[in-house]
Amino acid sequence: MELVEDTSRPPLKHVKGVPLLKYFAEAIGPLQNLTVRPDDLLISTYPKSGTTWMSEILDMIYQDCKLEKCRRAPIYTRVPFLEFKCPGVPSGLETLEETPAPRLLKTHLPLSLLPQSLLDQKVKVIYIARNAKDVAVSYYNFYNMAKLHPDPGTWDNFLENFMDGKVSYGSWYQHVKEWWELQHTHPVLYLFYEDIKENPKKEIKKVLEFLGRSLPEETVDFIVHNTSFKKMKENPMANYTTIPQDVMDHDVSPFMRKGITGDWKNTFTVAQNERFDAHYAKTMAGCALKFRFEL
Ligand code: PPS
């Protein structure tokens, strides 16, 4: 009988003090030998901040807005996820080896775990940040549906862990701040989920400028239309429904869940919100970063 490793809900494993999914933690060592190309582009985010959305936007730009080319493979194959590792599935590094240049790369890693080659070779970074309350709610639902995560427990419990940085990838607060600071020494385009939601065309134009490209107005409109939440939710190459159900159970919560700003109001109690605000004010004190919690 074949011995199949049980991949369901293993506890987090710490690497240099950062809690990570067990299998992703095992990928960090080999990832440090990553060979990068100067024309690579890194999409970096704290989880649940708009990574898939920006990945689809960038792949459309890279594929000359040809929809059939963007449907060539699921988003996690088109944009290799550097630290991804799961038994029986190609790792991020393996996927990357099969990816032709110019390559789009995805990571959620904090700077302390990022392969040094990405920094040394000044690989361009597009960072997306999303307000912490919507991230926490999205992350809780994701923990529930994606079985590589430990059991999140109750929402109240998860929220406490989120505030304490005791969730996969550690502290949201540190992540958004350290990647913000990186702009001083590295080519980083720092964008906000809420701004893309409010005016996707304006933010896509910033992306094009950062890439040194330009496109006609109607082509940018075409990208906006085809990367809308509705379009991506019904696109199997963008919505993660190609992942086996025992790894991601969309019946528990779909990956493309709501795609809005301010959904946290449907989950936070008044008491949780007050506690969160007090902790947020302390943790973000003196930081230039300002987030919008509603539009
Ligand atoms: S992951 O697993 O960390 O890579 O997830 P990530 O892609 O960063 O974030 C998932 C959330 O982004 C929402 N999403 C979108 N919102 C608006 N428009 C588009 N096109 C879009 N695509 C994905 C997705 O629904 C998750 O947010 P929630 O709040 O859970 O709906």
**Number of helical segments with 4 or more residues:** 14
Bound molecules: 3'-phosphate-adenosine-5'-phosphate sulfate
The succession of helices and strands, N to C, reads EEHEHHHHEHEHHHEHHHHH
What is the terminal separation in angstroms?
A: 55 Å
Task: Note poorly predicted spans.
Answer: none
For CATH, the homologous superfamily is named as P-loop containing nucleotide triphosphate hydrolases
- Estimated helix fraction: 40-55%
- Within the largest sheet, what's the order of strands? 4-3-5-6
Q: How many beta-strand segments?
A: 6
Could you tell me the radius of gyration in angstroms? Answer: 18 Å
The structural domain count equals 1
The CATH topology corresponds to Rossmann fold
Q: Decide which structural class fits the backbone.
A: alpha/beta
* Backbone shape: globular
Structure description:
The chain has 295 residues and is an alpha/beta fold. It has one domain: 3-Layer(aba) Sandwich (Rossmann fold), CATH 3.40.50. Helices cover 41% and strands 9% of the residues. The chain contains 14 helices and six strands. A four-stranded parallel beta sheet has the order 4-3-5-6, sandwiched between helices. The longest helix is centred in the middle third of the chain and has 14 residues. It is globular and about 50 Å long. The structure holds 3'-phosphate-adenosine-5'-phosphate sulfate. 3'-phosphate-adenosine-5'-phosphate sulfate binds next to helix 2, helix 7 and helix 13. The site of 3'-phosphate-adenosine-5'-phosphate sulfate has 20 residues, from helix 2, helix 7 and helix 13.
